[in-house]
Amino acid sequence: MKKISFKEILIIGLALFAMFFGAGNLIFPPSIGLIAGEKWKAALLGFSLTGIGLPILGVLAVTVSGGSIQSLLNKVGPKFATFFSTLIIILIGPLLAIPRTGATAFELGIKPLFPSVHPILGSVIFFGLTLLFTIKSSDIIDVIGKFLTPILLTMISAIIIKGILTPIGMPVNTQIAKPFSIGFENGYQTMDLLAAVVFGSIIADDIKNKGIISKKEQFKTVAQTGLIAGVGLGIVYGGLLYLGATGSSVFTQGMEKVSLTTNIINILMGSFGEIILSLCVYSACITTSIGLTATVGQFFNDLSNDKISYKTIVIISTLISIVISNIGVENIVTFADPILKIVYPIAIVLVIINVFDNLIENKKIYIGATIGTFCVSLIDGLSAMGVNTSVVGDFVQNLPLADSGLGWLFPAILGILLTHLISQLKEKAFTA
Fold this sequence. Notes:
The chain is mainly alpha-helical. It has helices at 6-20, 28-36, 40-65, 69-73, 78-95, 97-110, 119-135, 139-165, 179-186, 192-209, 215-246, 257-303, 310-325, 329-355, 365-384, 390-397, 409-431. The protein folds into 2 domains: 6-359, Hydantoin permease, CATH 1.10.4160.10; 361-432, no CATH class. Helix 6 packs antiparallel against helix 12.
């Protein structure tokens, strides 16, 4: 039985880290730290679960389920698998993630250096480059990816170390009541769990191509690579969140995420550091945008059985992204919040169950878990939209662990138990 070398595991682990380490995600940890203040550790724990732990678990779940997004979701049903996988691709594609990369590139990469550039012009240039390199593949993207991730990581590490050695302030009591839930639910905004079901298939294929056929060895390898990626993400996100917490005595609550990040960098590293980081972030956002746009194009091309060309899809995706990116990072995050509150808990439950799929005999529990979760996540999403959910909303808010952002957990478990019980009753009735 072939085993993979440590060097190969390290390379895959670093690649997985680079996949999750999108430049757009840099803006979330500092803002969570600012909100949490002296309770930043509890907020970091919540953010680490949804922003690091669950995405790594998502890659594991894809490996266990068969190596693709369809195999992960098919246990609920083929129609659901098609619908939910399409929804995930749209969310990490032209509706949320791709426009956010463009908006982040402008606000963190262009605006600090060229404040007179209009956002529309900035988005047209950004997505024009995205379209060019997505349609005509070029080695320049590989070069950018190989060199920029280390440079960006080096810059951020320097900023974090500087912020620890000479903090801009001290974490203060911000009167926040639920730091864990703030971190937990803000972790949804990374969208890394949704991306994980796509990245998981890439990692699974890479491991299979290296000759690792044994399911046990595949799981072990993915777990090891996931640990490497998770440690890297934990150090970066933890450091950035702490920097935000030290800013709680300096900056006002409610400060926009990009402005907060820019101000922290400027105080710690000066204008030169801000320039270098802006260039790195812009280039990293471009590579992320290209990768996601290509994923969208390939997915819908396959879904349509080549009836809609790859080129047509990426053009449409790019045009939609240009429009949405111009509402700005803060508005995209606000727009995304209720959608992610509906979708993310379902993804969490399906990923966790899939990891333990080998121990599950009754596959119908996937349906019960999905329905139970959706009943609560839908109410949470509607409430986040400002919809008056009345008595139902009050009931959901009083569910166990609702204060921690986990109100959907017990309904998911109840859905599993009821589905299993109904299945057993039907089986007994049939054999009677």
